[in-house]
Write a structure and sequence with these properties.
About 70% of the residues lie in helices and about 0% in strands. It has about 80 residues and is mainly α. It has one domain.
């Protein structure tokens, strides 16, 4: 029988893996956002107004996160996300 003060290394390992996955998803999202804002707002590219670029970026970010990041982030261990 386990006492209340024992350390459960397996649960911590699972949480650390999940945390690492969220970090990768967040870093990828930042890189994609910076690339898109560069393409939209930089004078050598499209040269749009920064406010307009940010509005368009929000729409692109929402669509891309739903397609690519949700399956990786919110998949529970042992299930297949379709």
């Amino acid at each position: 029988m386990k006492s209340a003060g024992t350390f459960n290394g397996g649960a911590v390992r699972v949480l650390l893996k999940r945390y690492a996955r969220f970090c990768v998803v967040g870093a990828t999202g930042v890189a994609v956002d910076m690339g898109i804002i560069y393409l939209l707002a930089d004078p050598s590219m499209l040269g749009w107004n920064l406010t307009l670029s940010n509005q368009r970026l929000a729409k692109i970010r929402f669509a891309s996160s739903k397609v690519s990041f949700d399956p990786m982030s919110y998949q529970t261990p042992g299930t297949v996300h379709v």
